[in-house]
Design goal:
Immunoglobulin-like, phosphoprotein, 6-stranded antiparallel β-sheet, Leucine-rich Repeat Variant, about 1000 residues, globular, 17 strands, transport, alpha+beta
C-alpha cells in the first residue's frame, strides 16, 4: 500500500513538473515572438506587441525578460506606443534599474512633451527608478512638473513626492516647499494627491493648511473619491487642534433660549453666569456643512470618513445624521460590513440612541459569516434597554439554536451581559441559561455554566438551588472551563451547599490525575476552602488531593499545592499567614463586570486600521485633545480682492437720490406699456425707428450701469427683447466695448442658455408672521439669471407687514457661515401695515443644496431664517442639438452617470406631461429628439457651469431615467427628485 501511494505521489509530482516546464517553454516561445515584433520596422507590429505585453502584465504574468526589447522603443514618436511603453516601464523600472537608467535622458526630454499624458508618464517612470544617484534629477522634475499647466501632470508630481521622500528622506525640506506650492492649487484633480503627499511627508506641519483650509472644504465635494477620504481624515485632525470642543459639559448652545415653565429670572441669571454659551467657529461649521452631502456618496470609504469626522467633531445632537448612511452600507460585501459594523459597535456603546431606530438592520441572517454575526450580536447587546429587551431576547433564543457553535456561545455571553445591565430581566435570563444546561451540545452547556457563574456572583444568596442543579450535572459536563467554573462556585459558596460540596470533592479526588490543569487548580482551591469550613468531613480528602498535587507534572499545580498546604495546615514551620487563611481564601469577591469588547476602542480614530485591530498600527496619528482656548482664527483668512460696487434695484420706500438718472423716462415707460399690451406684433417689428429707439435706450442704460460698475449690456440682453440683436452686434463689432470682461458671461447667457416654458413658481415660507412679530416673508426662485453675479442663484422674497404698526429698517443682517456669498436687497426704510413688497437677492450656493442661513432684521428685532434650494433650482437651461447631446453624454459615463427605472402611468407618457414633470423639478432646457419614446433635457450648474444631462427612455410601462454630470452628489439628488415627481403623478 505504501509503495503504491509513493509511486502515485511521485507520478503526480512528475506531471506537475512537466506542466510547469511546458508552460515556461510556451511563455519563452511567446516572448521570442514578441521580441521579434518589437524589433521590427513596422509601428503596427510594435503596437500590437505592446498591447499583448500589457495584457500579460494585467493577468499577473511575468514579462520582465522583455525589458531590453521594450526599452528600445521608449523614444518612439508614436504616441500610443509610447504610452504603452511607459506603462510597462513603471511596472519594471525598479526591478531593472540599470537598463532603466540608460533611458533617463529620454524621460527628461519627455517631460517637455506637448502631450500631457506623456509628460505625466515620464515623471511616473522616473520616480519609479529607486536609485539614489538620480535623486537630484527627480527633484528637479518634480519642481518643474508642479508648475505644469496640466492639472493631471501636477497631480502626478504630487504622487512622485511620496516616492522621492521614501527613497531619500533628506529631501524633506525641499519637498515641503513643493507641497506648500501645490496646496494652493485650485484644481480638484490635484487636491487629494497633494494632501496625501502632505500626510506622508509632513503631517505635523498644520501651518501649511491654514490658508488652504476653506478652499479644501469648498473643493471637497468635487474631489475624486479617494482624495476625499484623505482630505477628510486630515481635516479631522486639523479641526481637533484649531477649534474648541462642542461637547463641553454645561455649555449652552447659542440658539437655546427656551426656559422651563417655572424657572425664575434669578435662577436663569445664575445659570448664565455659570454656563457660557458655546459659539461654534464658522470654519468649524463650514467643515461639517460641506462634508454632510458626502454621506450620499457611493464610495463606502467616503461615507465612513464623514461618519468618523462627525463622531469626532460634531455637537452630540448632530451626530445622528450619519446613522442612516452607515446602516445603508450594510447592504454591501461582507468585508465592508465587517469594518462598518466595527465602527457602529464602538458608536453604539456611548450613544445607543443613534442606532435604536435601525435595530432590525442588525438582526443576524443565516447567510452571514461568523465574524459578521458576532459583530451584529455585539451591537444588539449594546442597544438593549428596558423598552426593547424582550424583542432582543426573543432574537437571542433563536441564535442559541444556531448550528454555528462559536456564534451560539457568543449569544450566551450576550444574554449574560443583558442580564447584568438590565436588572428587570436578570432572573429571566438566569432561568433561561439553567435550561440550556440540559442542551446536548457541550459547547452551549459550557458557555452557559461560565455565564451563570458570573451572574450568580451578583446575588448568590438567592440562587442556591441553581448551584445544586449545576452540581448534579457535573458528571455530564466535559468541557474543562465549565467544570472549573462549577468547582469555583462550589468552593465560593460551600457554606450554602454543605452536603453537596464535599461529595463533589470526593468525585474529583477519584479523577484528579486525568483532569486538565485548569480543573486541577480549582479542585485544590475547593479542597482548601472545604478544609477551612468543614474540616471534619474533608480533612482526609484534602490531604489526599494535596499529596496528588505535590507530584503533578505541572509546576503551576505543584506550586499551588505547596502554598495551600503551608497556608491551611498549621505546623512548626508555618508562616505568619496561617492565621489569616480564612480571610485570604474566603474573602468576599466583587462580582465581575460583563463589558463590551469595544468599550475602549474609541481611543483610536474611527475608520482607522488601529481601530479595526484594536492596536496601534505603524503610522497611526493620534487625534489631539480639543484646545481649551481656540488658536487665532485669522490665520485662515485669505486676502480677497474687493469686488466693484454692485448695482441693485431699489425696493420698498427708499428715497431716490436726485443725482441718480432715471432708468427710463416716463415717456419710455408709457411706450413700453403700450407695446406690451399690443401683443407680440410690436416685438417682432424691425423698422429702423425701433432700432434707433433701441440704440438710444441701450446707450442710456450703458452709461448708467458703467457708473454703477455693472455691465449694462448684460441687463439689456436679459430684459429688452427688441434690442438683443443690437446688443449682440455691439458686443461683436465694437472694439471699444468691454469684451474682455463680459464676453464669457454673454456667451453663457445669450448664446447657450434658454428660458424654459414653465408655469407658476412654487412659493416657500421664509418667516411666519407669528415668529416675525408681524413681519412675514416668503421666497421663490424665478429661474432667471442673477444680475449681481453670474454664479449666484436669483431669489425673490415677498415681505409683508401683518402687524398694526409700521415696520422700519428691514434689512439682511449676519450670514452663516460668514464666508457665504450673498447679495442683499437694499434696506426698506418703512413698510406700512398690510403692505407687501417684493425684493430680489442673489445667493451663491456653490452648486450645493445646503441652506443659506442669515438674519432678517427690522429696526427692533432680528430673526434667523434660511433659504433651502432644491437641486433643480441650481441649474440654468442649456440649448443643445441632439447630436451634441449624444456627444457630451458619451463623455460623461461610468462614475458620472446615474440611472434608475421609473414606473409610468399610461396617461402620463405624453411628451407634454413628461416635460411638465421634469420642468417642475429642474430648470432645464428641452433638447429636440428624433425618437418619440426618448426625451432629453440639458442644463448647466449656475456656480461651476458643469454640464447636466437628463434623458428618459420609455419602455412600455416603465421608463429608464438617466442623469449624466460630473457632480455625482448632485446627480443622485436630482435623480431622487425626478423619481419622486413621477411617483406622485
Amino acid at each position: 500500500g505504501m509503495d503504491v501511494g509513493f509511486s502515485y505521489n511521485h507520478a503526480a509530482g512528475a506531471v506537475r513538473t512537466a506542466l510547469v516546464s511546458a508552460e515556461n517553454l510556451h511563455l519563452s516561445l511567446k516572448n521570442e515572438d514578441l521580441k521579434e515584433m518589437l524589433e521590427s520596422n513596422k509601428e503596427s507590429l510594435k503596437l500590437e506587441a505592446m498591447k499583448r505585453i500589457v495584457g500579460l502584465i494585467a493577468k499577473g504574468k511575468t514579462a520582465s525578460e522583455l525589458f531590453p526589447a521594450v526599452v528600445k522603443n521608449v523614444a518612439s514618436k508614436n504616441i500610443e506606443l509610447k504610452k504603452l511603453v511607459y506603462v510597462y516601464l513603471v511596472r519594471y523600472a525598479e526591478e531593472q534599474q540599470d537598463l532603466a537608467l540608460l533611458s533617463i535622458s529620454t524621460f527628461q526630454r519627455a517631460l517637455k512633451d506637448p502631450n500631457q499624458f506623456i509628460r505625466a508618464s515620464a515623471l511616473r517612470v522616473l520616480s519609479s527608478i529607486r536609485v539614489h544617484i538620480i535623486v537630484p534629477i527627480m527633484m528637479l522634475a518634480i519642481k518643474e512638473s508642479s508648475a505644469d499647466l496640466s492639472p493631471y501632470v501636477r497631480k502626478t508630481a504630487a504622487h512622485a513626492i511620496q516616492k522621492l521622500y521614501s527613497l531619500d528622506p533628506d529631501q524633506k525640506e525641499l519637498l515641503i516647499e513643493v507641497i506648500e506650492k501645490l496646496l494652493k492649487d485650485k484644481s480638484t484633480l490635484v487636491a487629494g494627491s497633494v494632501v496625501m503627499a502632505f500626510e506622508e511627508v509632513c503631517p505635523d506641519r498644520i501651518d501649511l493648511i491654514h490658508k488652504n483650509y476653506r478652499k479644501l472644504c469648498n473643493l471637497l465635494v468635487d474631489v475624486e473619491e479617494w482624495g476625499q477620504v484623505v482630505i477628510i481624515s486630515m481635516l479631522t485632525r486639523y479641526a481637533r487642534t484649531q477649534f474648541t470642543s462642542p461637547w463641553k459639559e454645561g455649555a449652552v448652545p447659542e440658539e437655546n433660549d427656551d426656559k422651563t415653565f417655572y424657572e425664575s429670572d434669578s435662577e436663569d441669571k445664575k445659570e448664565q453666569a455659570q454656563n457660557k454659551p458655546y459659539i461654534m467657529d464658522p470654519d468649524h461649521r463650514l467643515l461639517l456643512r460641506n462634508t454632510k452631502p458626502l454621506l450620499q456618496s457611493r464610495n463606502t470609504a467616503v461615507v465612513l470618513a464623514v461618519a468618523q469626522l462627525y463622531w469626532h467633531l460634531a455637537p452630540k445632537h448632530e451626530v445622528n445624521v450619519v446613522s442612516k448612511s452607515l446602516v445603508r452600507l450594510l447592504r454591501s460585501h461582507r468585508e465592508v460590513q465587517y469594518i462598518v459594523l466595527q465602527n457602529i459597535a464602538t458608536m453604539s456603546i456611548q450613544r445607543k440612541g443613534m442606532f435604536e431606530p435601525f435595530m432590525k438592520s442588525f438582526y443576524v441572517r443565516s447567510t452571514d459569516a461568523t465574524h459578521i454575526k458576532t459583530l451584529k450580536l455585539e451591537i444588539l447587546t449594546n442597544l438593549a434597554s428596558e423598552t426593547n429587551i424582550s424583542i432582543i431576547l426573543r432574537e437571542f433564543q433563536t441564535y442559541v439554536k444556531s448550528q454555528d457553535k462559536a456564534f451560539a456561545a457568543a449569544t450566551i455571553q450576550a444574554i449574560g451581559r443583558c442580564a447584568t445591565n438590565i436588572s428587570e430581566v436578570t432572573d429571566t435570563c438566569l432561568n433561561g441559561l439553567v435550561l440550556l444546561l440540559s442542551n446536548r451540545d457541550e459547547t452551549v452547556v459550557a458557555e452557559s455554566v461560565v455565564v451563570i457563574k458570573k451572574l450568580l456572583q451578583t446575588q448568590p444568596s438567592q440562587h442556591s438551588e441553581i448551584i445544586k442543579h449545576m452540581a448534579k450535572l457535573f458528571d455530564n459536563i466535559t468541557v474543562p472551563m465549565a467544570r472549573a467554573s462549577i468547582l469555583w462556585l462550589m468552593g465560593e459558596y460551600c457554606e450554602r451547599v454543605p452536603k453537596i460540596a464535599p461529595d463533589v470533592l470526593r468525585k474529583m479526588a477519584k479523577t484528579f490525575t486525568a483532569e486538565e490543569d485548569i480543573v486541577k487548580l480549582q479542585t485544590v482551591n475547593l479542597a482548601a476552602k472545604l478544609y477551612l469550613t468543614n474540616s471534619k468531613q474533608t480533612k482526609l480528602l484534602t490531604q489526599y488531593i494535596l499529596n496528588l498535587g505535590k507530584y503533578d507534572q505541572s509546576y503551576d499545580i505543584r506550586d499551588r499545592t505547596r502554598f495551600i498546604r503551608q497556608l491551611i495546615v498549621p505546623n512548626e514551620k508555618s508562616g505568619a499567614l496561617n492565621k489569616y487563611a480564612r480571610r485570604i481564601l474566603l474573602a468576599p469577591k466583587p462580582a465581575p463586570v460583563l463589558e463590551s469588547t469595544f468599550k475602549d476602542r474609541d481611543r483610536f480614530q474611527l475608520g482607522s486600521l488601529s481601530h479595526s485591530l484594536n492596536s496601534k498600527a505603524t503610522g497611526y496619528q493620534e487625534l489631539s485633545d480639543w484646545p481649551t482656548v481656540a488658536p487665532d482664527p485669522s490665520v485662515r483668512n485669505v486676502e480677497v480682492i474687493e469686488p466693484v460696487k454692485e448695482w441693485a434695484p431699489l425696493v420698498g420706500k427708499t428715497k431716490k437720490s436726485k443725482s441718480q438718472d432715471k432708468f427710463y423716462s416716463d415717456e419710455e415707460d408709457e411706450k413700453e406699456e403700450r407695446s406690451d399690451s399690443s401683443g407680440s406684433g410690436s416685438e417682432s417689428s424691425s423698422s429702423d425707428g425701433s432700432f434707433l429707439n433701441c440704440s438710444v435706450a441701450f446707450m442710456r442704460v450703458e452709461s448708467h450701469c458703467n457708473a454703477q460698475g455693472v455691465p449694462g449690456r448684460v441687463y439689456l440682453l436679459l430684459h429688452s427683447p427688441i434690442s438683443r440683436l443690437y446688443a449682440a452686434a455691439r458686443f461683436t463689432h465694437n472694439p471699444n466695448c468691454r469684451i474682455c470682461s463680459c464676453l464669457d458671461f454673454i456667451n453663457v447667457l445669450f448664446f447657450q442658455v434658454t428660458t424654459p416654458s414653465f408655469g407658476p413658481m412654487t412659493t416657500h415660507e421664509l418667516l411666519h408672521h407669528m415668529t416675525g412679530k408681524g413681519l412675514s416673508a416668503k421666497y421663490q426662485f424665478p429661474r432667471q439669471p442673477c444680475l449681481y453675479q453670474p454664479s449666484m442663484v436669483a431669489v425673490q422674497v415677498i415681505l409683508s407687514n401683518n402687524s398694526d404698526h409700521c415696520l422700519e429698517k428691514i434689512h439682511i443682517g449676519e450670514t452663516s457661515p460668514a464666508s457665504l456669498s450673498i447679495h442683499c436687497f437694499n434696506t426698506i426704510e418703512r413698510l406700512e401695515p398690510e403692505a407687501s413688497v417684493m425684493v430680489s437677492m442673489g445667493i451663491d450656493f456653490s452648486d450645493s443644496t445646503q441652506a443659506a442661513n442669515f438674519q432678517l432684521c427690522t429696526k427692533e428685532d432680528q430673526f434667523s431664517v434660511s433659504i433651502q434650494p432644491a437641486v433643480g433650482e441650481l441649474l440654468m437651461p442649456r440649448t443643445m442639438s441632439e447630436q451634441d447631446f449624444c456627444k457630451e453624454q458619451g463623455k460623461l459615463l461610468g462614475m458620472n452617470e446615474t440611472s434608475a427605472t421609473v414606473t409610468m402611468a399610461t396617461a402620463n407618457t405624453s411628451s407634454q406631461a413628461i416635460r411638465k414633470q421634469v420642468l417642475a423639478v429642474a430648470n432645464v432646457g428641452v433638447v429636440p429628439c428624433s425618437q418619440s419614446n426618448i426625451h432629453r433635457f440639458a442644463a448647466q450648474t449656475i456656480s461651476s457651469r458643469a454640464l447636466v444631462l437628463v434623458s428618459l427612455e420609455l419602455k412600455e410601462a416603465t421608463a429608464a431615467l438617466t442623469v449624466n454630470t460630473e457632480k455625482s452628489v448632485m446627480a443622485s439628488v436630482l435623480l431622487r427628485d425626478l423619481k419622486q415627481a413621477f411617483a406622485q403623478v
